Amino acid sequence: MKKLLLILFVLLSIQGFACKCPNGGLKLSEYVTASDIAFKGKILSVERMGDFYYYEVKIEKLYKGELVQELIQIKSLATTSCKLRLLVDEEYFVFAVWESPGLYSVGTCSGTDLYDEKREVEFAVDGPDTLRQE
Question: What residue numbers bound the domain in which 60 lies?
Fold first, then answer.
């Protein structure tokens, strides 16, 4: 019985290795500043290739960056516990960094998250120049 209690104590005292972002909880405008492109977008498709998910995304509203084409591709890691998995047919705030023409990358700590109309108001609160309507 003592051994069982000791084992349980050790297992319960071990700190978990959950994903934590060093910049956790930034405002939307701060994620915009840290990204090369920021937009509201709808995920059209996803394909896993090796260690990455590749998403085809339709840009619906651009907040930062140049709109060269309406459809772009973003990628995220698929093989770590900190992976970011986006769902097809869902709308997201996407904050991404440039990889190559037409390809951007996102991650758990990039700020990319499900679109929420209420959160979009944060752009207006942070300043009128933060949100660019297309």
Answer: 20-126
